[in-house]
Amino acid sequence: MIKTVPTTPFKDQKPGTSGLRKKVPVFQQPNYAENFIQSIFDSLEGFQGKCLVIGGDGRYYNRDVIQKAIKMAAANGFGKVMVGKGGILSTPAASHVIRKYKAFGGIVLSASHNPGGPTEDFGIKYNIGNGGPAPEKITDAIYARTTIIDHYKIADFPDVNLDRIGRDDVGGMIVSVIDPVEDYAALMEELFDFGAIRNLISLGFRLCFDAMSAVTGPYAKDILENRLGAPTGSVRNFMPLPDFGGHHPDPNLVNCHELYEEMMSDDAPDFGAASDGDGDRNLIIGKGIYVTPSDSLAILAANANLAPGYSHGIAGIARSMPTSGAADRVAEKRGIGIYETPTGWKFFGNLLDAGLATICGEESSGTGSSHVREKDGLWAVLLWLNILAVRGESVADIVGQHWAAYGRNYYSRHDYEGVDTDAANGLIASLRDKLPTLPGTKFGDLTVSAADDFSYHDPVDKSVSNNQGIRILFEGGSRVVFRLSGTGTTGATLRVYIERYEADSTRHNIETQEALADLIVAAQSVADIRGRTGRDAPTVIT
Ligand code: G1P
Ligand code: ZN
Protein backbone atom coordinates (compact mmCIF):
# COMPACT_ATOMS: atom_id res chain seq x y z
CA MET A 1 0.00 0.00 0.00
CA ILE A 2 1.27 3.47 -0.88
CA LYS A 3 0.72 6.35 1.54
CA THR A 4 0.73 9.99 0.50
CA VAL A 5 1.87 11.97 3.54
CA PRO A 6 1.25 15.74 3.77
CA THR A 7 4.33 17.71 4.83
CA THR A 8 5.67 21.26 5.06
CA PRO A 9 9.05 22.53 3.82
CA PHE A 10 12.18 22.94 5.96
CA LYS A 11 14.15 26.06 5.24
CA ASP A 12 17.62 24.50 5.46
CA GLN A 13 17.79 21.82 2.80
CA LYS A 14 20.22 23.41 0.38
CA PRO A 15 22.77 20.80 -0.77
CA GLY A 16 26.42 21.88 -0.30
CA THR A 17 29.67 20.76 -1.97
CA SER A 18 28.55 17.14 -1.66
CA GLY A 19 24.89 16.78 -0.82
CA LEU A 20 22.84 17.72 2.21
CA ARG A 21 24.78 17.56 5.48
CA LYS A 22 23.29 18.23 8.89
CA LYS A 23 23.52 17.00 12.45
CA VAL A 24 21.70 13.73 13.15
CA PRO A 25 19.02 15.41 15.36
CA VAL A 26 18.16 17.69 12.43
CA PHE A 27 17.72 14.64 10.19
CA GLN A 28 15.64 12.95 12.92
CA GLN A 29 12.93 15.62 12.80
CA PRO A 30 9.70 14.11 11.49
CA ASN A 31 9.61 14.25 7.66
CA TYR A 32 13.09 15.83 7.35
CA ALA A 33 14.81 12.97 5.49
CA GLU A 34 11.57 12.13 3.68
CA ASN A 35 11.18 15.70 2.37
CA PHE A 36 14.70 15.66 0.94
CA ILE A 37 14.40 12.21 -0.61
CA GLN A 38 11.03 13.08 -2.18
CA SER A 39 12.56 16.32 -3.49
CA ILE A 40 15.28 14.25 -5.16
CA PHE A 41 12.71 12.01 -6.84
CA ASP A 42 10.57 15.01 -7.84
CA SER A 43 13.60 16.52 -9.61
CA LEU A 44 14.22 13.43 -11.76
CA GLU A 45 12.42 12.16 -14.82
CA GLY A 46 12.08 8.77 -16.42
CA PHE A 47 12.99 6.45 -13.55
CA GLN A 48 9.75 4.42 -13.53
CA GLY A 49 10.62 0.72 -13.39
CA LYS A 50 14.36 1.44 -13.23
CA CYS A 51 17.01 0.59 -10.62
CA LEU A 52 18.17 2.77 -7.72
CA VAL A 53 21.36 1.97 -5.78
CA ILE A 54 21.32 2.75 -2.06
CA GLY A 55 24.18 2.53 0.40
CA GLY A 56 26.08 4.44 3.01
CA ASP A 57 29.16 4.61 5.16
CA GLY A 58 27.55 2.83 8.11
CA ARG A 59 27.36 5.89 10.32
CA TYR A 60 24.69 6.41 12.97
CA TYR A 61 21.18 6.69 11.41
CA ASN A 62 22.33 4.97 8.18
CA ARG A 63 20.01 2.00 8.49
CA ASP A 64 16.98 4.12 9.42
CA VAL A 65 17.29 6.34 6.35
CA ILE A 66 18.00 3.35 4.11
CA GLN A 67 14.68 1.78 5.15
CA LYS A 68 12.85 5.05 4.45
CA ALA A 69 14.58 5.44 1.08
CA ILE A 70 13.71 1.88 0.01
CA LYS A 71 10.03 2.38 0.88
CA MET A 72 9.94 5.77 -0.85
CA ALA A 73 11.65 4.37 -3.97
CA ALA A 74 8.94 1.69 -4.15
CA ALA A 75 6.16 4.25 -3.70
CA ASN A 76 7.61 6.52 -6.36
CA GLY A 77 7.80 3.78 -8.97
CA PHE A 78 11.37 2.47 -9.08
CA GLY A 79 11.40 -1.14 -10.28
CA LYS A 80 14.41 -2.24 -8.29
CA VAL A 81 16.69 -1.17 -5.44
CA MET A 82 20.22 -2.54 -5.01
CA VAL A 83 21.49 -2.03 -1.48
CA GLY A 84 24.79 -3.03 0.11
CA LYS A 85 24.66 -5.68 2.83
CA GLY A 86 24.43 -4.02 6.24
CA GLY A 87 23.57 -0.79 4.44
CA ILE A 88 27.25 -0.50 3.50
CA LEU A 89 28.63 0.86 0.24
CA SER A 90 31.67 3.08 0.13
CA THR A 91 31.18 6.15 -2.05
CA PRO A 92 33.45 4.83 -4.85
CA ALA A 93 31.88 1.36 -4.62
CA ALA A 94 28.40 2.91 -4.92
CA SER A 95 29.59 4.80 -7.99
CA HIS A 96 30.90 1.57 -9.51
CA VAL A 97 27.71 -0.39 -8.76
CA ILE A 98 25.59 2.33 -10.40
CA ARG A 99 27.77 2.16 -13.52
CA LYS A 100 28.21 -1.60 -13.69
CA TYR A 101 24.51 -2.40 -13.37
CA LYS A 102 23.41 0.63 -15.43
CA ALA A 103 21.22 1.88 -12.59
CA PHE A 104 19.23 5.06 -13.03
CA GLY A 105 21.10 6.63 -10.09
CA GLY A 106 21.93 6.18 -6.46
CA ILE A 107 21.43 7.60 -3.01
CA VAL A 108 24.60 7.69 -0.93
CA LEU A 109 24.15 8.25 2.79
CA SER A 110 27.25 9.80 4.23
CA ALA A 111 28.75 12.90 5.71
CA SER A 112 32.13 11.79 4.36
CA HIS A 113 34.93 12.72 6.74
CA ASN A 114 32.70 14.43 9.33
CA PRO A 115 32.26 12.69 12.72
CA GLY A 116 29.32 10.30 13.25
CA GLY A 117 27.08 9.44 16.18
CA PRO A 118 23.75 10.50 17.71
CA THR A 119 24.73 14.17 17.89
CA GLU A 120 27.19 14.24 15.00
CA ASP A 121 26.79 14.49 11.23
CA PHE A 122 24.66 12.75 8.64
CA GLY A 123 24.21 13.35 4.95
CA ILE A 124 22.28 12.43 1.82
CA LYS A 125 23.67 12.74 -1.67
CA TYR A 126 22.17 11.85 -5.04
CA ASN A 127 24.35 10.37 -7.78
CA ILE A 128 23.30 10.20 -11.43
CA GLY A 129 23.52 7.32 -13.90
CA ASN A 130 27.19 7.94 -14.75
CA GLY A 131 27.93 7.14 -11.09
CA GLY A 132 28.90 10.70 -10.17
CA PRO A 133 27.44 13.36 -7.91
CA ALA A 134 24.43 15.15 -9.38
CA PRO A 135 25.45 18.28 -11.30
CA GLU A 136 24.38 21.73 -10.07
CA LYS A 137 21.40 21.78 -12.43
CA ILE A 138 19.92 18.85 -10.49
CA THR A 139 21.02 19.92 -6.99
CA ASP A 140 19.50 23.36 -7.64
CA ALA A 141 16.24 21.71 -8.71
CA ILE A 142 16.26 19.50 -5.61
CA TYR A 143 16.75 22.53 -3.40
CA ALA A 144 13.98 24.48 -5.16
CA ARG A 145 11.68 21.52 -4.62
CA THR A 146 12.47 21.36 -0.87
CA THR A 147 11.19 24.90 -0.48
CA ILE A 148 7.69 24.09 -1.75
CA ILE A 149 7.22 20.39 -1.04
CA ASP A 150 3.79 19.55 0.41
CA HIS A 151 3.64 15.75 0.36
CA TYR A 152 5.76 12.65 -0.01
CA LYS A 153 5.00 9.08 -1.00
CA ILE A 154 6.02 6.05 1.00
CA ALA A 155 5.12 2.36 0.71
CA ASP A 156 3.88 0.50 3.73
CA PHE A 157 5.85 -2.75 4.09
CA PRO A 158 8.04 -4.18 6.85
CA ASP A 159 11.72 -3.21 7.04
CA VAL A 160 13.95 -5.06 4.59
CA ASN A 161 16.49 -7.46 6.14
CA LEU A 162 19.73 -5.71 5.20
CA ASP A 163 21.94 -8.41 6.69
CA ARG A 164 21.16 -11.21 4.26
CA ILE A 165 22.42 -11.20 0.67
CA GLY A 166 19.62 -12.02 -1.75
CA ARG A 167 16.66 -10.78 -3.78
CA ASP A 168 13.13 -10.18 -2.65
CA ASP A 169 9.97 -8.77 -4.13
CA VAL A 170 8.68 -6.16 -1.71
CA GLY A 171 5.61 -4.10 -2.47
CA GLY A 172 5.97 -4.77 -6.21
CA MET A 173 9.63 -3.71 -6.30
CA ILE A 174 12.72 -5.96 -6.35
CA VAL A 175 15.13 -5.36 -3.47
CA SER A 176 18.54 -6.90 -4.04
CA VAL A 177 20.92 -6.95 -1.07
CA ILE A 178 24.43 -7.25 -2.53
CA ASP A 179 27.94 -7.92 -1.25
CA PRO A 180 29.34 -4.39 -0.97
CA VAL A 181 32.95 -5.44 -1.68
CA GLU A 182 32.82 -8.02 -4.49
CA ASP A 183 32.22 -5.83 -7.56
CA TYR A 184 34.62 -3.17 -6.37
CA ALA A 185 37.42 -5.62 -5.59
CA ALA A 186 37.01 -7.20 -9.04
CA LEU A 187 37.36 -3.77 -10.66
CA MET A 188 40.58 -3.12 -8.73
CA GLU A 189 41.98 -6.46 -9.93
CA GLU A 190 41.34 -5.36 -13.52
CA LEU A 191 43.08 -2.00 -13.08
CA PHE A 192 46.15 -3.03 -11.11
CA ASP A 193 48.85 -5.65 -11.31
CA PHE A 194 47.89 -7.66 -8.23
CA GLY A 195 50.58 -10.23 -9.05
CA ALA A 196 53.34 -7.61 -8.87
CA ILE A 197 51.98 -6.16 -5.62
CA ARG A 198 51.60 -9.62 -4.10
CA ASN A 199 55.18 -10.33 -5.04
CA LEU A 200 56.40 -7.08 -3.48
CA ILE A 201 54.61 -7.92 -0.24
CA SER A 202 55.90 -11.48 -0.23
CA LEU A 203 59.43 -10.10 -0.43
CA GLY A 204 58.92 -8.31 2.90
CA PHE A 205 57.50 -4.91 1.88
CA ARG A 206 55.49 -3.72 4.91
CA LEU A 207 52.32 -1.70 4.62
CA CYS A 208 49.81 -0.45 7.09
CA PHE A 209 46.34 0.89 6.34
CA ASP A 210 44.13 2.67 8.87
CA ALA A 211 40.43 2.33 7.98
CA MET A 212 39.56 4.70 10.85
CA SER A 213 36.62 2.46 11.97
CA ALA A 214 34.85 3.58 8.81
CA VAL A 215 33.60 2.09 5.59
CA THR A 216 36.88 1.07 3.89
CA GLY A 217 37.58 -1.57 6.58
CA PRO A 218 35.86 -4.47 4.78
CA TYR A 219 37.24 -3.38 1.41
CA ALA A 220 40.83 -3.01 2.64
CA LYS A 221 40.74 -6.30 4.58
CA ASP A 222 39.57 -8.19 1.54
CA ILE A 223 41.86 -6.52 -0.99
CA LEU A 224 45.07 -5.85 0.96
CA GLU A 225 45.09 -8.86 3.28
CA ASN A 226 43.08 -11.59 1.53
CA ARG A 227 43.88 -10.88 -2.10
CA LEU A 228 47.31 -9.26 -1.88
CA GLY A 229 48.69 -11.23 1.03
CA ALA A 230 49.52 -8.44 3.48
CA PRO A 231 49.85 -10.02 6.94
CA THR A 232 46.78 -9.97 9.19
CA GLY A 233 46.86 -6.76 11.17
CA SER A 234 48.15 -4.68 8.25
CA VAL A 235 44.64 -3.18 8.07
CA ARG A 236 43.73 -1.47 11.31
CA ASN A 237 40.42 -0.23 12.72
CA PHE A 238 38.65 -2.26 10.05
CA MET A 239 35.24 -2.61 11.71
CA PRO A 240 32.90 0.17 10.52
CA LEU A 241 31.37 1.69 13.67
CA PRO A 242 28.33 4.02 13.81
CA ASP A 243 30.41 6.67 15.59
CA PHE A 244 33.77 5.73 14.02
CA GLY A 245 34.95 4.86 17.53
CA GLY A 246 34.52 8.51 18.51
CA HIS A 247 37.20 9.60 16.06
CA HIS A 248 37.03 12.15 13.30
CA PRO A 249 37.27 9.98 10.14
CA ASP A 250 39.22 12.52 8.11
CA PRO A 251 42.62 11.12 7.15
CA ASN A 252 44.77 14.18 7.77
CA LEU A 253 47.93 14.50 9.80
CA VAL A 254 46.04 15.67 12.87
CA ASN A 255 43.59 12.76 12.99
CA CYS A 256 46.17 10.22 11.84
CA HIS A 257 49.00 11.47 14.01
CA GLU A 258 49.70 7.97 15.40
CA LEU A 259 50.16 6.58 11.91
CA TYR A 260 52.26 9.60 11.01
CA GLU A 261 54.53 9.18 14.03
CA GLU A 262 54.93 5.50 13.27
CA MET A 263 55.84 6.27 9.66
CA MET A 264 58.47 8.76 10.83
CA SER A 265 60.05 6.30 13.30
CA ASP A 266 63.18 4.22 12.70
CA ASP A 267 61.36 0.93 12.21
CA ALA A 268 58.56 2.42 10.11
CA PRO A 269 56.77 0.22 7.57
CA ASP A 270 57.46 1.01 3.90
CA PHE A 271 54.03 2.44 3.23
CA GLY A 272 51.24 3.90 5.37
CA ALA A 273 47.79 4.96 4.24
CA ALA A 274 44.33 5.80 5.53
CA SER A 275 40.90 6.60 4.15
CA ASP A 276 37.92 8.60 5.39
CA GLY A 277 34.37 7.89 6.61
CA ASP A 278 32.93 6.97 3.20
CA GLY A 279 36.12 5.73 1.53
CA ASP A 280 36.74 8.38 -1.08
CA ARG A 281 39.71 10.19 0.48
CA ASN A 282 43.25 8.96 0.98
CA LEU A 283 46.31 9.74 3.05
CA ILE A 284 49.66 8.52 1.75
CA ILE A 285 52.78 8.42 3.91
CA GLY A 286 56.02 6.76 2.93
CA LYS A 287 58.75 5.78 5.36
CA GLY A 288 59.91 9.16 6.66
CA ILE A 289 57.87 11.22 4.17
CA TYR A 290 54.32 12.53 4.00
CA VAL A 291 53.09 12.96 0.42
CA THR A 292 50.78 15.95 -0.02
CA PRO A 293 47.60 15.13 -1.96
CA SER A 294 48.64 17.63 -4.65
CA ASP A 295 52.02 15.92 -5.08
CA SER A 296 50.36 12.51 -4.95
CA LEU A 297 48.06 13.52 -7.83
CA ALA A 298 51.04 14.65 -9.92
CA ILE A 299 53.11 11.54 -9.14
CA LEU A 300 50.22 9.14 -9.80
CA ALA A 301 49.49 10.86 -13.11
CA ALA A 302 53.16 10.76 -14.11
CA ASN A 303 53.44 7.02 -13.33
CA ALA A 304 49.94 5.71 -14.08
CA ASN A 305 51.13 3.96 -17.23
CA LEU A 306 52.89 1.43 -14.96
CA ALA A 307 49.47 -0.02 -14.02
CA PRO A 308 47.64 -2.27 -16.53
CA GLY A 309 44.45 -0.15 -16.44
CA TYR A 310 46.39 2.91 -17.67
CA SER A 311 49.12 1.27 -19.74
CA HIS A 312 48.02 3.18 -22.84
CA GLY A 313 48.61 6.50 -21.09
CA ILE A 314 46.17 9.05 -19.77
CA ALA A 315 44.13 11.55 -21.77
CA GLY A 316 44.41 14.45 -19.38
CA ILE A 317 44.49 15.54 -15.75
CA ALA A 318 41.88 17.59 -13.91
CA ARG A 319 42.42 19.28 -10.57
CA SER A 320 40.34 21.58 -8.41
CA MET A 321 41.44 25.21 -8.49
CA PRO A 322 42.90 25.27 -4.95
CA THR A 323 44.96 22.10 -5.65
CA SER A 324 48.63 22.90 -6.33
CA GLY A 325 49.94 23.26 -9.85
CA ALA A 326 52.24 20.21 -9.52
CA ALA A 327 49.98 18.20 -11.84
CA ASP A 328 50.07 21.01 -14.44
CA ARG A 329 53.80 20.44 -14.91
CA VAL A 330 53.26 16.75 -15.57
CA ALA A 331 50.54 17.53 -18.12
CA GLU A 332 52.73 20.13 -19.79
CA LYS A 333 55.70 17.78 -20.13
CA ARG A 334 53.49 14.99 -21.47
CA GLY A 335 51.56 17.26 -23.81
CA ILE A 336 48.20 16.20 -22.35
CA GLY A 337 45.23 18.31 -21.24
CA ILE A 338 45.01 19.95 -17.83
CA TYR A 339 41.71 21.23 -16.45
CA GLU A 340 41.18 23.52 -13.45
CA THR A 341 37.73 23.11 -11.90
CA PRO A 342 35.94 24.48 -8.83
CA THR A 343 36.16 22.55 -5.57
CA GLY A 344 33.95 19.44 -5.46
CA TRP A 345 34.11 16.17 -7.36
CA LYS A 346 30.96 16.86 -9.36
CA PHE A 347 32.89 19.18 -11.67
CA PHE A 348 35.08 16.31 -12.91
CA GLY A 349 32.15 14.23 -14.19
CA ASN A 350 31.76 15.92 -17.57
CA LEU A 351 35.52 15.87 -18.25
CA LEU A 352 35.69 12.14 -17.44
CA ASP A 353 32.57 11.32 -19.45
CA ALA A 354 33.90 13.23 -22.45
CA GLY A 355 37.27 11.43 -22.24
CA LEU A 356 39.13 14.72 -21.73
CA ALA A 357 40.58 13.73 -18.36
CA THR A 358 41.56 10.30 -17.02
CA ILE A 359 42.98 11.22 -13.60
CA CYS A 360 41.54 13.84 -11.24
CA GLY A 361 42.39 15.14 -7.83
CA GLU A 362 41.81 17.65 -5.09
CA GLU A 363 44.14 19.00 -2.45
CA SER A 364 41.68 17.72 0.17
CA SER A 365 42.99 14.15 -0.17
CA GLY A 366 40.81 13.15 -3.08
CA THR A 367 42.27 11.32 -6.06
CA GLY A 368 40.54 9.19 -8.63
CA SER A 369 40.15 8.30 -12.27
CA SER A 370 37.72 7.45 -15.01
CA HIS A 371 37.10 3.98 -13.48
CA VAL A 372 34.27 5.51 -11.39
CA ARG A 373 32.81 9.01 -11.04
CA GLU A 374 33.85 9.64 -7.43
CA LYS A 375 37.20 10.04 -5.81
CA ASP A 376 38.51 6.75 -4.53
CA GLY A 377 40.73 6.25 -1.49
CA LEU A 378 41.70 2.62 -1.99
CA TRP A 379 42.25 3.16 -5.69
CA ALA A 380 44.96 5.72 -4.85
CA VAL A 381 46.53 3.32 -2.36
CA LEU A 382 46.57 0.50 -4.92
CA LEU A 383 47.99 2.69 -7.69
CA TRP A 384 50.78 3.74 -5.33
CA LEU A 385 51.46 0.08 -4.46
CA ASN A 386 51.46 -0.84 -8.16
CA ILE A 387 53.97 1.93 -8.91
CA LEU A 388 56.17 0.95 -5.94
CA ALA A 389 56.08 -2.70 -7.05
CA VAL A 390 57.11 -1.89 -10.62
CA ARG A 391 59.74 0.75 -9.82
CA GLY A 392 61.21 -1.08 -6.85
CA GLU A 393 62.05 2.23 -5.18
CA SER A 394 60.90 3.78 -1.91
CA VAL A 395 58.18 6.43 -1.65
CA ALA A 396 60.83 8.98 -0.62
CA ASP A 397 62.96 8.20 -3.68
CA ILE A 398 60.01 8.46 -6.03
CA VAL A 399 58.91 11.81 -4.55
CA GLY A 400 62.48 13.18 -4.57
CA GLN A 401 62.99 12.22 -8.21
CA HIS A 402 59.65 13.76 -9.11
CA TRP A 403 60.61 17.10 -7.54
CA ALA A 404 63.99 16.98 -9.25
CA ALA A 405 62.34 16.45 -12.63
CA TYR A 406 59.42 18.87 -12.28
CA GLY A 407 60.25 21.23 -9.40
CA ARG A 408 58.49 21.29 -6.04
CA ASN A 409 55.21 23.04 -5.27
CA TYR A 410 55.34 23.84 -1.56
CA TYR A 411 51.76 23.72 -0.40
CA SER A 412 49.65 24.07 2.72
CA ARG A 413 46.02 24.65 3.67
CA HIS A 414 45.07 26.62 6.77
CA ASP A 415 41.53 26.04 8.02
CA TYR A 416 39.69 28.28 10.44
CA GLU A 417 36.75 26.16 11.60
CA GLY A 418 33.55 27.22 13.35
CA VAL A 419 34.01 30.90 12.49
CA ASP A 420 31.03 33.23 12.86
CA THR A 421 29.16 33.03 9.55
CA ASP A 422 28.69 36.78 9.11
CA ALA A 423 32.36 37.41 9.87
CA ALA A 424 33.44 34.81 7.31
CA ASN A 425 31.08 36.14 4.64
CA GLY A 426 32.31 39.66 5.41
CA LEU A 427 35.93 38.63 4.95
CA ILE A 428 35.25 37.14 1.52
CA ALA A 429 33.05 40.08 0.46
CA SER A 430 35.72 42.57 1.42
CA LEU A 431 38.38 40.63 -0.51
CA ARG A 432 36.07 40.56 -3.52
CA ASP A 433 35.67 44.35 -3.32
CA LYS A 434 39.43 44.79 -3.16
CA LEU A 435 40.25 42.61 -6.17
CA PRO A 436 40.62 45.38 -8.80
CA THR A 437 43.03 47.34 -6.59
CA LEU A 438 45.34 44.42 -5.74
CA PRO A 439 47.53 43.97 -8.85
CA GLY A 440 50.84 45.75 -8.26
CA THR A 441 50.36 45.83 -4.46
CA LYS A 442 53.41 44.73 -2.45
CA PHE A 443 53.38 42.49 0.61
CA GLY A 444 56.99 42.47 1.84
CA ASP A 445 58.98 41.15 -1.11
CA LEU A 446 55.89 39.77 -2.83
CA THR A 447 54.08 41.67 -5.56
CA VAL A 448 50.53 40.77 -6.62
CA SER A 449 50.41 40.02 -10.34
CA ALA A 450 46.70 39.22 -10.66
CA ALA A 451 43.65 38.68 -8.47
CA ASP A 452 40.19 37.32 -9.25
CA ASP A 453 37.19 35.37 -8.01
CA PHE A 454 37.45 32.06 -9.84
CA SER A 455 34.84 31.34 -12.53
CA TYR A 456 34.62 27.98 -14.24
CA HIS A 457 33.42 27.54 -17.79
CA ASP A 458 32.65 23.86 -18.29
CA PRO A 459 34.12 22.94 -21.69
CA VAL A 460 31.57 20.15 -22.16
CA ASP A 461 28.15 21.49 -21.18
CA LYS A 462 29.20 25.17 -21.36
CA SER A 463 27.73 25.90 -17.91
CA VAL A 464 29.36 28.69 -15.88
CA SER A 465 30.02 28.53 -12.12
CA ASN A 466 30.93 31.87 -10.58
CA ASN A 467 32.37 32.92 -7.19
CA GLN A 468 34.38 29.74 -6.65
CA GLY A 469 37.21 31.26 -4.60
CA ILE A 470 39.38 34.35 -4.33
CA ARG A 471 42.76 33.85 -6.03
CA ILE A 472 45.65 36.17 -5.38
CA LEU A 473 48.61 35.44 -7.64
CA PHE A 474 52.09 36.80 -7.03
CA GLU A 475 54.95 37.42 -9.39
CA GLY A 476 57.04 34.24 -9.65
CA GLY A 477 54.05 31.89 -9.54
CA SER A 478 53.17 31.81 -5.82
CA ARG A 479 49.55 32.23 -4.81
CA VAL A 480 47.06 32.42 -1.97
CA VAL A 481 43.43 31.28 -2.34
CA PHE A 482 40.54 32.01 0.01
CA ARG A 483 37.22 30.21 0.04
CA LEU A 484 34.49 29.15 2.45
CA SER A 485 33.75 25.48 2.98
CA GLY A 486 30.53 24.05 1.57
CA THR A 487 30.59 20.91 3.74
CA GLY A 488 30.83 22.16 7.33
CA THR A 489 27.83 21.93 9.64
CA THR A 490 28.83 24.37 12.40
CA GLY A 491 29.28 28.07 11.59
CA ALA A 492 31.61 28.78 8.68
CA THR A 493 34.99 27.31 7.80
CA LEU A 494 37.46 29.62 6.11
CA ARG A 495 40.03 27.80 4.00
CA VAL A 496 43.25 29.54 3.04
CA TYR A 497 45.38 27.70 0.46
CA ILE A 498 49.02 28.72 0.14
CA GLU A 499 51.41 27.65 -2.61
CA ARG A 500 54.93 28.42 -3.78
CA TYR A 501 56.83 26.87 -6.66
CA GLU A 502 60.52 26.09 -6.29
CA ALA A 503 62.46 24.88 -9.34
CA ASP A 504 65.88 24.76 -7.65
CA SER A 505 66.45 21.22 -6.32
CA THR A 506 68.96 22.43 -3.73
CA ARG A 507 65.98 24.17 -2.10
CA HIS A 508 63.61 21.20 -1.98
CA ASN A 509 64.16 20.33 1.68
CA ILE A 510 62.81 23.37 3.48
CA GLU A 511 60.13 22.80 6.12
CA THR A 512 56.78 23.59 4.44
CA GLN A 513 55.46 26.31 6.77
CA GLU A 514 58.88 27.96 6.68
CA ALA A 515 58.98 27.83 2.88
CA LEU A 516 55.59 29.54 2.83
CA ALA A 517 56.19 32.01 5.68
CA ASP A 518 56.09 35.24 3.65
CA LEU A 519 52.90 34.12 1.84
CA ILE A 520 51.25 33.29 5.17
CA VAL A 521 52.00 36.82 6.36
CA ALA A 522 50.64 38.26 3.09
CA ALA A 523 47.42 36.22 3.44
CA GLN A 524 46.92 37.52 6.95
CA SER A 525 47.49 41.07 5.90
CA VAL A 526 45.37 41.13 2.74
CA ALA A 527 42.35 39.47 4.39
CA ASP A 528 42.77 40.69 7.98
CA ILE A 529 41.93 37.18 9.18
CA ARG A 530 42.70 38.02 12.81
CA GLY A 531 40.63 41.20 12.87
CA ARG A 532 37.63 39.74 11.10
CA THR A 533 37.46 36.27 12.70
CA GLY A 534 39.06 36.94 16.08
CA ARG A 535 41.34 33.96 15.48
CA ASP A 536 45.07 34.10 16.11
CA ALA A 537 45.84 30.82 14.40
CA PRO A 538 44.24 28.25 12.11
CA THR A 539 42.33 25.32 13.67
CA VAL A 540 43.94 22.79 11.32
CA ILE A 541 47.03 23.07 9.17
CA THR A 542 47.49 20.43 6.49
C1 G1P B 1 35.68 19.71 1.04
C2 G1P B 1 36.93 19.73 0.21
C3 G1P B 1 36.60 19.44 -1.23
C4 G1P B 1 35.85 18.12 -1.33
C5 G1P B 1 34.66 18.13 -0.40
C6 G1P B 1 33.97 16.78 -0.35
O1 G1P B 1 34.79 20.69 0.59
O2 G1P B 1 37.60 20.98 0.32
O3 G1P B 1 37.78 19.41 -1.97
O4 G1P B 1 35.41 17.90 -2.63
O5 G1P B 1 35.07 18.46 0.92
O6 G1P B 1 34.82 15.77 0.10
P1 G1P B 1 34.64 22.13 1.29
O7 G1P B 1 34.36 21.87 2.75
O8 G1P B 1 35.98 22.81 1.14
O9 G1P B 1 33.55 22.81 0.55
ZN1 ZN C 1 34.58 11.28 1.84
UniProtKB/TrEMBL annotation:
The keyword Ribosomal protein does not apply. Coiled coil: none annotated. It comes from the Bacteria. SUPFAM superfamilies: Phosphoglucomutase, C-terminal domain, Phosphoglucomutase, first 3 domains. GO terms for cellular component: cytosol. One of its GO terms (molecular function) is magnesium ion binding. PROSITE patterns: PGM_PMM (PS00710). It catalyses: alpha-D-glucose 1-phosphate = alpha-D-glucose 6-phosphate. It comes from Rhizobium tubonense. Its EC number is 5.4.2.2. Belongs to the phosphohexose mutase family. Keywords: Isomerase, Magnesium, Metal-binding, Phosphoprotein. Residues 13-150, 183-285, 294-406 form the Alpha-D-phosphohexomutase alpha/beta/alpha domain. The keyword Transmembrane helix does not apply. InterPro entries: A-D-PHexomutase_a/b/a-I, A-D-PHexomutase_a/b/a-I/II/III, A-D-PHexomutase_a/b/a-II, A-D-PHexomutase_a/b/a-III, A-D-PHexomutase_C_sf, A-D-PHexomutase_CS, Alpha-D-phosphohexomutase_SF, PGM. GO terms for biological process: carbohydrate metabolic process. This is phosphoglucomutase (alpha-D-glucose-1,6-bisphosphate-dependent). Residues 1-21 are annotated as: Disordered.
